[in-house]
Specification:
Blueprint (H helix, E strand, L loop, with lengths): L8 E6 L7 E6 L6 E4 L26 H24 L5 E5 L5 H8 L3 E5 L3 H11 L3 E2 L12 E7 L8 H11 E12 L4 H6 L13 E2 L2 H9 L3 E8 L1 H16 L4 H18 L4 E8 L1
Parallel strand pairs: 4-5, 4-7, 5-6, 7-8
Antiparallel strand pairs: 1-2, 2-3, 3-9, 8-11, 10-11
Helix pairs in contact: 1-2, 7-8
Amino acid sequence: MAKKELNHIHLKVKDHSVSGEVFELIQNPKCGFLETIPQPSLDKLPFYYQSEDYISHTDSKRNLFEKIYHLVRSISLKKKLRLINSSSSGGKSLLDIGCGTGDFLKIAQQNNWDVSGIEPDSQARNIANKKTKDSVFETEHLKTFKASSFDVITLWHVLEHLPNLDEHITIFKKLLKPDGVLIIAVPNYNSYDAKHYKQFWAAYDVPRHLWHFNQDSISKLVLKQSFKVKKVKPMWFDAFYVSLLSEKYKSGKMNPIKGIWIGLWSNLKSMVSKEASSLIYIIKNS
């Protein structure tokens, strides 16, 4: 996005995971999402993922926190499978962008889906290919798929990592069948836990998260390619995970009781406001 399009500074947020650097979140006036400024160059971006704590790139279960993460992920995988089964118009071709270590693709493949995945991290990609019979490819492979190849394209907490938003939405439009479904899950900066923790909200995760969304900004973004958000669903577990991590960033320790309380309170409030910590958008051609 051009600098002249940028509006006021929303927050200043520290990278708690890798560099300790401070970044600004600046609101884009056209779409309403927040941009991480400055954004790392493409050649420097991988540096910010070099952390043993980046769980989605490993299958490690070193401590209670990681064990809980994997337990919750196993429950979430079944919910994701039900969602794609109910959202598809009948076809069984799936593309998962940023598939990590491939657990979602594995469960989909076991349930008769024809799966493909894109994963830029070589370590995660190798793990994923062992689980999915070599169905996962490097980012460059995204442009080699034939047009109208997929019934469902999913991005589970991935859109916020992609450097070129408009370009990727255009590619997804091309790859989806006319009656295909685009499913995007992202953190929601209008949630109660985001407003409570402010600059310590773990889901800002700068600079790995280049963009930060609310419901209105997602609708405006996908509308550029004649997509329309048909349904929005909450991700209940995210409020607890994010709040626990946010407590660590804010106070220097986990403080699980308070983190769980804020996560619970955020979920309760979202039942009225519809502003959960993370949201799943089911998107179709308008």
